[in-house]
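A reminder from the course coordinator: this example appears on the midterm review sheet, so study it carefully.

Given structure:
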């Protein structure tokens, strides 16, 4: 068997050390891991109608009118109104029975999505938007005379979805 010279031994040892160091470096940089995590979705905040009224001119015989709603959003994302219902139409005016003189047309077309969207807000700084809904109230063609200038009240129910992009 042949004897290794000092030089050959040094070359072999240096090569083994270099390969071992490269392997250690690879092991130090090649990592994997696993674990568990938790996430919790936020809660939505109910929209609030802060005011409701009629377009200029109000209700007139035989005509539908626009209802103006100011909607407040305390959610951290924008919302788009997808449905509006008006209920419990009433008038305190003597001789002006609301349901005999004004029709509620809940299937009137909603505003375009861009005009039915309320921007994102927050608990401390809610966002508001005015939604103009054309045609949900229509006065009959021959209303009672007592309905001239009469105030009307109604409840508003909104459905909405997230409008976040």
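Designed residues:
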């Amino acid at each position: 068997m042949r004897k290794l010279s000092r030089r050959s031994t040094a070359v072999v040892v240096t090569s083994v050390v270099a390969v071992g160091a490269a392997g250690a470096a690879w092991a130090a940089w090649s990592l994997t891991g696993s674990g568990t995590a938790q996430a919790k979705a936020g809660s939505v905040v109910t929209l609030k109608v802060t005011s409701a009224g009629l377009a200029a001119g109000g209700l007139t015989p035989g005509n539908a009118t626009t209802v103006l709603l100011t909607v407040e959003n305390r959610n951290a994302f924008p919302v788009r109104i997808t449905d509006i219902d008006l209920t419990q139409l009433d008038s305190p005016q003597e001789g002006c029975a609301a349901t005999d003189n004004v029709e509620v047309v809940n299937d009137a077309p909603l505003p375009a999505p861009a005009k039915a969207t309320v921007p994102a807000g927050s608990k401390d700084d809610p966002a508001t938007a005015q939604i103009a809904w054309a045609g949900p109230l229509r006065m009959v063609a021959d209303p009672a005379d007592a309905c001239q200038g009469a105030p009307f009240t109604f409840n508003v129910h909104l459905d909405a979805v997230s409008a976040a992009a």
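Residues 48-159 form one domain. Strands lie at 48-54, 64-73, 79-90, 102-104, 117-118, 127-139, 153-162.
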